[in-house]
Design brief:
The structure holds two protein chains of two kinds. By secondary structure, chain A is an alpha+beta fold. Chain A contains seven helices and four strands. Chain A has a four-stranded mixed sheet with strand order 2-1-3-4, with helices on one face. In chain B, the strands form two sheets. Chain B has a four-stranded parallel sheet with strand order 3-2-1-4, with helices on both faces. Chain B has a four-stranded mixed sheet with strand order 6-5-8-7, covered by helices on one side. In chain B, strand 2, helix 7 and strand 3 form a beta-alpha-beta unit. Chain B is globular. Classes of the chains: A alpha+beta, B alpha/beta. At the A-B interface, helix 2, helix 4 and helix 5 of A face strand 3, strand 5, strand 8 and helix 13 of B.
């Protein structure tokens, strides 16, 4: 099989499976684990791997993958950037931030910058409305943003190796 | 009347507030000791006295919900915590998980004991990585201290807590969708009945509680649930205690404020939230998340003849205490108690357009009226904003929304229809102006 986990990640998978009364319940956490180990996307090989390990049909796993927005069915850039554009953020300037990111990165929403470093996405409500506008970069929130703040964040991403 | 409290928020902003030592030095883990000294039935009776109405939006009484769990059953019971916070405008549960996670752990132990569960899953939306890390950290600390595991606080009642991650779907905040998601399926809501208390997680009796509901239970048990309930101005409405209020949008000091139940929107917006940006007036307020109807600031709701409402008659919606029953009776919805404020500098048409894009994106697609209806409404609003819609189409939004309401498996459909109906009812002229003027509006913006 083309996809396999490292020994360390295998250990983690076993720990995850031990938390639930059946194997199916580990489906979403297992997909997260494998996605991270696979350059942040869920390939057909990953689906096959998860299905085999959890004794599920591949159709079931694929159904789960396609339901949730945070399972990438294509390889994203090195970093993923989400701009929340739901009402509270929109009232605080999210659209300006989004357009600025599009301009700076040279992509439309959903695309990856030509250097492959950043995939730009929108997010629906990140539960940070009191500190709007907010963006998420990989696993980190940045809140109360101005365009200058966004520039600094983007500088860091683009310059980073 | 403003009665600010600090049961949950005492630690907010303080260094290492998420650690066990900080929580205990502020009086934490006392409530659970008192609860574990009672019988299981005793815990439920006590919990009912707190009149803690579910903080996730539906406002169901927590103790009553616990009492629905079977007394004896051969199957294991589960406590499931709904930490899939994602209702637009709502950001209170995240603050608890990040800054005061032990209050949730304590509430979970009480909840598990009350409903006869030995395992609890905290379903956190995937985006909240810091919340998950803080919760796992708190679980490890509590376990090391013997507060979780086989003998929590020396009691022969094993309790294990686990954090479970979602994967990006608003609908998983609906309790049965959450259960499906927890079981490793697509997060599609289930038909009820059977209700979770009979057939919940893994086919076993389960209770699904919101983060804040459980976290505040720890304080209620510490204080004595009856006394805790009486903090609230709405104690006569069986809506007790204190809760977190959020305010976002066009206010000077957006954020989370904790106060006794009974706060009004005017107090939340002006006294705590610092008033509207640039000293402007309010165009509209959405009281508790985007599924609630929007209100005009001078709206005078009709209240039921019940004498408990006499004190509030003739008052604007901004001056009626924020409570589950008071707001329901006033033709509104309390939701999560996190208000969104629109100033009069902005355009309500664009606000609804934004909200309906959200619902179209998040509809799970299971029921036709919601899947198709949300898309239709968004497409009509696209045309309105582009100046290509007709008055007939605007009326059709009303028809579509009315046909979603009550015709779906879960409450998402109603939650999507309600803002559409409320916005068009209250700002009809703004919508018509767009149509008549070919997409030109006076403001055409959402930012101040």
């Amino acid at each position: 099989m083309a996809f396999a986990l490292s020994a360390e990640a295998e250990q983690k998978l076993n720990e995850i499976m031990a938390r639930y009364p059946n194997k199916m319940a580990a489906c979403i956490p297992a997909l997260h684990l494998c996605q991270e180990a696979n350059d942040n996307w869920v390939s057909d090989d990953v689906i096959e791997f998860v299905a085999q390990r959890l004794e599920l049909g591949t159709a079931h796993v694929k159904g789960v993958v396609t339901f949730y927005t945070l399972f990438n069915q294509k390889r994203p850039g090195k970093h993923q950037l989400w701009v929340c554009h739901t009402l509270s953020c929109a009232m605080r300037g999210a659209e300006d931030i989004l357009h600025h990111c599009e301009k700076r990165l040279g992509v439309h929403v959903g695309g990856t910058s030509p250097d492959g470093k950043v995939t730009l996405r929108t997010a629906e409500c990140l539960a940070a409305c009191g500190t709007a506008p907010v963006i998420q970069v990989d696993k980190t929130y940045y809140e109360n943003l101005s365009i200058a703040d966004v520039d600094r964040i983007l500088d860091g991403l683009v310059k980073g190796a | 009347m403003i009665k600010q409290t600090t049961y949950l928020s005492h630690s907010y902003g303080k260094p290492n507030s998420w650690t066990l030592s900080a929580y205990e030095s502020a009086g934490g883990y006392r409530g659970v000791r008192k609860a574990l000294a009672l019988t299981r039935e005793g815990v439920i009776e006590e919990a009912k006295k707190a009149h803690v109405r579910g903080r996730g939006g539906a406002g169901f009484d927590c103790g009553t919900k616990w009492s629905f769990m079977p007394k004896e059953s051969k199957k294991p019971h589960y406590l499931v915590v709904n930490a899939d916070e994602g209702e637009p405008g709502t950001f209170k549960d995240r603050s608890i998980m990040e800054m005061n996670p032990h209050s949730l752990i304590e509430g979970c132990i009480i909840g598990c004991y009350g409903i006869g569960a030995h395992a609890c899953y905290i379903y956190v939306r995937d985006e909240l990585h810091l919340s998950k890390a803080r919760l796992w950290g708190a679980i490890r600390e509590a376990k090391a201290k013997g507060y979780l595991g086989n003998n929590p606080f020396g009691k022969d009642y094993p309790v294990e807590l686990y954090v479970h991650s979602g994967a990006g779907a608003y609908i998983c905040g609906e309790e049965t969708a959450l259960l499906n998601s927890l079981e490793g399926r697509r997060g599609e809501p289930r038909l009820k009945p059977p209700f979770p208390a009979q057939y919940g997680a893994f086919g076993c009796p389960s209770t699904v509680n919101n983060v804040e509901t459980l976290a505040i239970m720890a304080s209620a048990f510490d204080m004595g649930c009856d006394e805790f309930s009486k903090l609230s101005e709405l104690h006569p409405f069986n809506d007790g205690g204190a809760r977190l209020f959020g305010v976002s949008g066009h206010v000077n000091r957006p954020g989370i404020y904790e106060a006794a139940v009974g706060l009004t929107l005017r107090e939340l917006i002006y006294d705590l939230g610092g008033g509207v940006l640039q000293g402007r007036s309010i165009l509209g307020v959405i009281p508790g998340g985007s599924s609630c109807p929007v209100h005009l600031p001078d709206e005078l709701p009709t209240l039921p003849p019940d004498p408990r409402y006499d004190a509030y008659r003739g008052k604007s919606i901004l001056d009626i205490p924020l409570g589950v029953d008071t707001f329901r009776s006033a033709g509104s919805m309390l939701g999560t108690c996190c208000a969104m404020v629109l100033s009069d500098a902005v355009d309500p048409v664009l606000a609804l357009h934004n909200v309906m894009r959200f619902y179209r994106h998040e509809s799970c697609g299971q029921c036709t009226p919601c899947r198709e209806g949300c898309g239709w409404i968004e497409r009509i609003l696209n045309k309105v904003v582009e100046g290509k819609a007709t008055i007939d189409e605007l009326d059709r939004v009303h028809e579509i929304a009315s046909n979603i309401t009550g015709n779906t498996i879960c409450a998402f459909g109603d939650g999507a229809a309600q803002p559409a109906l409320a916005f068009i009812k209250r700002y009809r002229k703004h919508f018509e102006d767009y149509i008549v003027n070919g997409g030109k509006s006076q403001t055409r913006r959402l930012t101040v």
